[in-house]
Design a protein that fits this description.
Keywords: Membrane, Transmembrane, Transmembrane helix
Number of domains: 1
Radius of gyration: 22 Å
Number of strands: 0
Distance between the termini: 82 Å
Helix content: over 70%
InterPro entries: ETR1_N
Protein name: Ethylene receptor 1-like N-terminal domain-containing protein
Order of helices and strands: HHHHH
Largest sheet: none
Shape: elongated
Number of helices: 5
Pfam families: ETR1_N (PF25487)
Strand content: under 5%
């Protein structure tokens, strides 16, 4: 194999998983799952900080505000990173990435929807904990 063909093979390997090489139906499915998984994860991550922001205000401690704000920022940045992956489509083995992203998308969406549905119960529980802790300090 001469240097020119080695360079060509190297070029194919390096660019095999980029978004512009969608050739077969399997490639379309993988790309679709990649985008859909990252989109669902990103949106779910961005739903969670809204709920945590409400919880943060239910507890009567100053440190809760800082910890809550940091947690909200962390989760929001995780969501933004996943949304950016829809555009970037990082090069990696598709099967390995999808083994992580598809279940993560399902768990993220389930968590976000459950937390939203149970907002009242969670806030009541946190207020009860806050009241009990405040009463214990007296």
């Amino acid at each position: 194999m001469d240097a020119g063909s080695a360079q060509y093979v190297s070029h194919l390997v390096m660019n095999d998983h980029t978004w512009y090489r969608l050739i077969t139906t399997a490639d379309y499915v993988r790309a679709g799952l990649w985008c859909l998984s990252n989109l669902v994860i990103g949106i779910s991550y961005l739903m969670l900080p809204v709920e945590i922001w409400h919880w943060r205000t239910a507890l009567p401690f100053r440190s809760t505000a800082v910890i809550g704000a940091l947690f909200v920022a962390f989760i929001a940045f995780c969501g933004i990173s996943h949304l950016s992956m829809v555009v970037i489509m990082q090069t990696a083995p598709w099967w390995a990435v999808l083994l992580i992203y598809v279940p993560t998308a399902a768990v993220s969406l389930g968590t976000a929807l459950l937390v939203r549905r149970e907002r009242g119960l969670i806030l009541a529980a946190l207020q009860g904990v806050g009241a009990a802790l405040a009463q214990g300090k007296e």
